[in-house]
Structure formats: C-alpha cells, structure tokens
Specification:
transcription; sequence-specific DNA binding; binds adenosine-5'-triphosphate; DNA-binding; 23 helices; 19 strands; 4 domains; alpha/beta; transcription regulation; AAA+_ATPase; Beta-Lactamase
Length: 636
C-alpha cells in the first residue's frame, strides 16, 4: 500500500517536472529533485532508452585488477551483505570511485533482472552516464542516498530500489561506492542502514591500514565503543589535523575540507592521554569524549608533549601507502641541510624560501630532526592561517579572561610551547605588519608577555622561518619590516621549484621508493617516469607526491605501471606531452602566470567551485589557493 502511494506521488512529480517544467516540491525529496535538474541540464532525455553497454571482458578484468586493493578491503563486508542480499532477493554492488561497477553479487534471479537494465559489472553508474541513481547521486552528493522505483531518471531503472553509500579514505577522498539493490516492488526497510554499517567497517579498516604505525587518537563519548568501527579516529601532523574518519568529524563538528587546517587546540580544550591509556577530554564544542592513543607510537606534537624520534613501523603488505612518504633529498639539498643544521645549532635563524609545495615544512622538520634539539618540541605556527583576531593570543598567550572569548584557564601561547625546542614560523611573509614589530621584540629579547599583562617569560628557542614570497621585495614595497627581515634571514636556504631540480626523473624515482614501492611491490615504467619528469608541476613536490600516491593506490601489486595507469584527468594526448600543466586536458598557451591561472580556473570549474577539493587537486593548500586568487584580483 505504502509503495503504491509512493509510486503515485512520484508519477505525479515526474509529470509536473518533465512535462510542465514545474518543481514538484513535497512529492519527491530535494536530493532527487536536484539530481533530476542536473541530469536535465546535462541534456539527458528521461524518456529515452539509455545506451549502457558493459566494457569488454578484458577491459573489465583490467579495471578489477586496478582496483584489487579496494576489492580486497571490501571483501568481508561484501560477503556478509551477500548472504542477506541473497535471502532478500537483492544484490550487493561495489563500484570504483567513478561509479564503474566492479562486482555485483547476490540473488541469481535478481542478478539476471539487474543485468537486463545494465546494473552489472563493467557498466558505469555515474549520474552523467546513467541519470539519477543511488550510486551516481551518492557520488555527487558525497553521502548515502536511496533511489526508489520511478525516482530513477530513466524509465527502465524503475524496476530497481537502490541504497548506496560512498566509501571515504582518511583524507576525505571517495575510493568507491557500496550499493544494495533490489526489486522496486519490495520495500527494503533496512537496506540503507546495512550499507552504512558495512561502509563504516570498511572505512575503519582502511584508516588502520593507511596509518599503520602512526599515532592514531581514538575518541568516543561511550568508552565501550572505543576500538570499534563507531569510534572517531584522528591523526595529527604537528599541531594540525591531518586525517579523520567521519565519526571523528561528526563528534568535533567538522567537515572534510577542514583537514590540514584545524589545529589541535581549536578542537580540544584538554591535553591528550599518554600513549596506551584512556582519558576523558573536553572538546572545544563543550562535549566530553573518551580518548585513547595507541601505545608507544607518539608522532604528534601537541602542547606540552615531546615528539618521539621513533619512526612508525613499516606498513603492512595489504592496503598501504596512503600515508606520507619518508623524505627524500638529493645530494645538493642534503649538503645544504647539513650546513643549515650547524647554523641552527649555533642559534642562527634560518629562512626557507620557495614556491608552494617545494618542501619548506618538510625541510624545517628535517632541520629539527638533525639538530641537537631533536628530542625537544617542534612547534609550527602558520602565520597566514591564524585568524588575525587571535594571532596575538595564539602566539604570545593570554591570562585568564584577558579578552572576550579567552580561555577560562588562560593559554601559554605557541612561543612558550616551543621553549627548549624549535619554533617554525611558516608563511612569515603573510604576517600582518602590526604584529611584526611585536614578534621582532620577542625574537630579540627572547621573552614573551601574555596578553592581559602578567610577568614576562623567558623563552629559549631556535627559529626557522619560511615563506613563498620574495621577502626582500616585500621589504622594498614596505609590506615587511626590514629589521625583522634581517633578524630572520640570517641564513637563507632557497628550495628550487620541482621543474628546476637538477634531475626530475631521479626525484620521481626517489619519491616512489620512499612511498614504499618496494614493500608493495610496484614499479614505474621508464615511459611513465619520463612523462612525469616532463611536466611542469605548479604544485611542486606536493603535487607530484599526490600523483604517485594515486598511482600506488590504484595500481596492482607486482605491476609495472605505464602512462596508461595515470589517474583519470592526468592523462593527456601524446601530442600534448610538452604542455605545461598536469591537469590540462587540452593544449594551453601563455606565460607561466597564464598557465597557472588556467590550471586554477579549470580545476575550480571541475570541482564546481569547491575550494577545498580544488586545492587538493592542485596540490596546494587552501590558503595558498585563496592567496593566488586574491593576487589575481589585485592584478598581480
Ligand atoms: N623532500 C621531500 N621528500 C618527500 N616529500 C616531500 C618533500 N618535499 C615535499 N614533499 C611532499 O610535499 C608536501 C608539501 O611539502 P611542504 O608542506 O613542506 O611544502 P611547503 O613548501 O611548506 O608548501 P606551502 O608553502 O604550500 O605550505 C609534503 O607533505 C610531502 O608530501
């Protein structure tokens, strides 16, 4: 009965939408309506019969092989769902991140029916190709979606009722979709819940594999659920949140775009438990959670804790290297780092200059690691991303109740947290002029006075600064204080852009090895190395590492990867092999400035204006992307 009522209202909604061009609000959900609109805008004709041919068997085999790691990871949940799908006369489907169906298993009768409407391995079920459907629409919406009967865009798919959920990796990238589909005439009450539970399990395992050996912080309001797939999982790099699962994001009131941005003390008001123990912690939302850290694996630096020099254990064979690679430096850079370490140890401030993604922070951490202060804190301050209103209190600390919104117990400030260790002033060139004089005074006098008064505290820090700007020119333009410049630029190390590395192919091979290619094992064919070395890499090493990680995540264990294995959107026609940008599908022209602008515009358009996604794709930070856009507006 319920089904009939529903199908009648959808039929009415379809008539209003497709025949009258009206918005049938209240008759279908906003999600379905938005999807119908997208399909219509793309020119898909709802009354037409879609032509959805499966790829050839060999191509399907290759596609399955390419996604073998994902298929292996999902196997336990696929098998568990298979048993219930079989009983309920439905099927379970696994797709690649683009909606291409890799596997479908379940009730043989329904498999047959589904295959007749192309719901079968080898067929793409993205929204662009197949219209409104649970898999494709879940990919567009980046969340679980149910599409029943005539809610499907194309008439032949009315026989289906489908529930799909995207599978996210710890950086918020979609790695696949899990879907449960059955007869539209049967109301599958728990289908979406079952899919979501299965995806939770898969993501939990994916997180463990990706960060095997790292210091994972596990949080949950209910301590009994710590260690289960319902726990929130977080990984910090320095003070910044580097990875999280969806439970952690929900508990902290965040979304994926905030990864890499949020600092530890913006999320928690109390210190972490010591490794191996459970403690209750207050989140900045005011909620209490229980937190556990894995024993003896401290890699994060949070206020008051000291980084352990121990490196994480090598990754297990199975899913692997979604984590950061070990660092690699060519002989020239290695020697330069050695020299700078000696200077740093002698209390000379080191300034690192280089374009975005050239490895300024990586080198700063390496300087710290090789310095006599390796066992003391490394405290990174991003002078560009601290909110201007808070920058003073974040740096210099404040007394209890020093200003509206100040922490009740006061805060020591980042400069004091670095006491005894190394202070890394990242993006120093973007620090507001008004604060530069105060920072200069601290660096000269080596003491800080918290906001709100109180006594001055002596600080003993070694200082490394970094900027993507030509700081000398900023001084000439009056944007940066000359006296602060001379204070921080006592020794300057220029990090060259990747395109100017003496041997880019060698850098490609070293990074590949550092990503763990030998343990996986997987090789790069010479043509692929040549292709990668020929690109211009506006996002520098960060961008190259991103492509290598994608290659490794998508490749097959034991394979030799060629140009054809480049992720979608990175391949380009042979004639275009000398084009400047890694993302351009077609030829581009102009100087470096124009090329960068074109790359940004294309990626922003592809990401529908989503700044976080575009920054990820470009291989630069979100603040860098904003900066570039602002610079363009100013006509620079
Ligand atoms: N020498 C290196 N070895 C291995 N990976 C590197 C190296 N240099 C850079 N990378 C990779 O590039 C990423 C970006 O590096 P890093 O954050 O140090 O760049 P940056 O110059 O500080 O960029 P930005 O100015 O945008 O902050 C790193 O997370 C790492 O994955």
């Amino acid at each position: 009965m319920r089904h009939n009522v529903m199908s009648e209202s959808i039929d009415t909604a379809r008539r209003r939408f497709f025949d009258d061009g009206a918005a049938p609000r209240g008759l279908v959900s906003d999600t379905i309506l938005a999807s119908w609109r997208r399909c219509l805008e793309q020119g898909l004709v709802a009354s037409a019969r879609p032509s959805l041919m499966p790829v050839e068997r060999r191509a399907l085999g290759e596609m399955q092989e390419r996604h073998e790691a994902l298929r292996r990871l999902c196997r336990p949940e696929l098998e568990a769902l298979y048993a219930s799908a079989n009983q309920a006369g439905s099927i379970v489907v696994l797709t690649a991140p683009d909606g291409f169906i890799l596997d479908a298993l379940g009730d043989p009768d329904f498999l047959d029916k589904a295959a007749r409407v192309s719901l079968r391995p080898g067929v793409p079920w993205s929204e662009q190709s197949t219209g409104t459907n649970a898999i494709g629409t879940a990919l567009v919406e980046r969340r679980s979606v149910e599409v029943r009967g005539a809610e499907h865009y194309y008439a032949p798919h009315r026989v289906l009722s489908c529930s799909a959920s995207p599978i996210f990796d710890p950086q918020g990238r979609v790695v696949g979709v899990l879907d449960l589909s059955g007869h539209a005439s049967v109301h599958h009450l728990h289908a979406l819940g079952m899919v979501q539970l299965a995806v939770e399990q898969i993501e939990h395992r994916l997180f463990e594999c990706a960060f095997d050996g790292a210091d994972i912080v596990r949080i949950q309001p209910d301590p009994a659920l710590i260690g289960t797939a319902r726990e929130g999982m977080l990984v910090f790099e320095g003070h910044r949140l580097a990875a999280a699962n969806r439970h952690a994001l929900r508990l902290l009131g965040l979304d994926w775009s905030e990864l890499g941005k949020r600092r530890y003390d913006e999320l928690f008001a109390s210190a972490l438990p010591v490794p191996g123990s459970v403690a209750s912690m207050r989140c900045q939302t005011g909620d209490m959670v229980h937190a556990r850290r894995d024993p003896q694996r401290s890699r994060i630096v949070v206020p008051g804790t000291v980084r352990s020099p121990r490196e994480p254990s090598p990754p297990k064979q199975a899913i692997r290297p979604l984590r950061a690679p070990a660092t690699v430096f060519d002989a020239q850079l290695d020697a330069a780092i050695e020299r700078q370490v000696r200077l740093l140890d002698a209390d000379i401030t080191v300034l690192l200059q280089g374009e975005t993604g050239t490895g300024k922070e990586v080198v700063a951490r390496e300087l710290h690691r090789r310095s006599s202060r390796a066992d003391a804190p490394f405290v990174a301050v991003n002078c560009a991303s601290l909110p201007e209103a808070l920058i003073e209190s974040e740096l210099f600390g404040h007394l209890p109740g020093a200003f509206t919104g100040a922490r009740r117990e006061g805060a020591p400030g980042l400069l004091r947290e670095a006491h005894g260790g190394v202070l890394f002033l990242d993006e120093l060139g973007d620090m507001p002029l008004s604060l530069q004089s105060r920072l200069l005074r601290v660096l000269q006098e080596r003491e800080v006075t918290p906001l709100g008064g109180g006594r001055a505290h002596a600080i003993d820090v070694r200082v490394i600064a970094a900027t993507h700007r030509q700081l000398q020119q900023s001084v000439d333009r009056g944007e940066f204080r000359a006296d602060l410049y001379f204070r921080v630029a006592q020794s300057v190390l220029h990090l060259p852009p990747l395109r100017e590395h003496p041997d880019v192919a060698d850098t490609v091979r070293r990074l590949w090895a550092a990503l763990g290619a030998e343990q996986v094992p997987m090789r790069l064919a010479p043509d692929l190395v040549r292709e990668l070395a020929a690109r211009r890499w506006p996002g520098n090493v960060r961008e190259l590492v991103g492509v290598l990680r994608s290659l490794m995540a998508l490749g097959t264990v034991g394979a030799t990867l060629t140009v054809d294995d480049l992720p979608d959107g990175w391949r380009r026609p042979a004639a275009d092999a000398s084009a400047s940008s890694a993302f351009t599908a077609g030829p581009v022209a102009g100087n470096l400035h124009d090329l960068e602008a074109q790359a940004i515009d294309q990626v922003l358009a592809a990401c529908r204006g989503n700044m976080a996604a575009a920054a990820r794709k470009l291989g630069i930070s979100r603040s860098t992307l904003y900066r570039r856009l602002e610079a363009r507006q100013r006509g620079e």
